[in-house]
Fold this protein.
Amino acid sequence: MNRTDRLYALVEELRACAPRRVSARELAARYEVSVRTIERDIGALQQAGVPIFADVGRAGGYTLDKSRTLPPLNFTPAEAVAVAITLSRAGGSPYSRSARTALHKIVAAMSATDSASARELAERVRFMTPPDGTDPAPTSVPAVLEEAMSARRVVRLRYVDADGTETERDVEPVAFTAVSLRWYLIGWCRLRDGARVFRTDRIRRATLLDERAPERGFDEMSPPPTDYVIRSLELV
């Protein structure tokens, strides 16, 4: 059994046994690998966002929170690859890190046969980058901004404007927006007492504050240029 198949099997094994804990020694014997290999595999799954919990001691072991996992999904290999292509283009977006863990969860929840077929199909998808660097990777959005948006908390920014002037300002986050591959934070700037749009690659430092941001709607924000149309992200 290769490592990919073993990772999938470990998730299914822990899901089937939950809430009973399974020791690393049991899992090592079942998959005919060392205890250290199982520990590395579990660590990789945890880093990918799989909700596996560990207890130490003689009665300890690993368990998986069933309420936060998916049963085997009926994704076709082509559907899984389509999702992977979309998520692979999320580099630099506010949720690029979550995109990677989401993809891991989707593949881990597929059947072993469909997962293998999806990987084989993915091998036949290639992305090309110009050698002269004219298509650089987008700058990643700071993780603090993701948390500020999700938790609706005020964030303190060290920001450099188009003229090179650096200021520190507290901002109430309202939304993320993008033009091509460049991402912006729309928020209420307390320094200027008004709506402002901040290029995320000009943010030098971001600090999450304890204060919860008040509710603000787009009617309080500046209107977009007349030749742009703004639409919300759709999940379905």
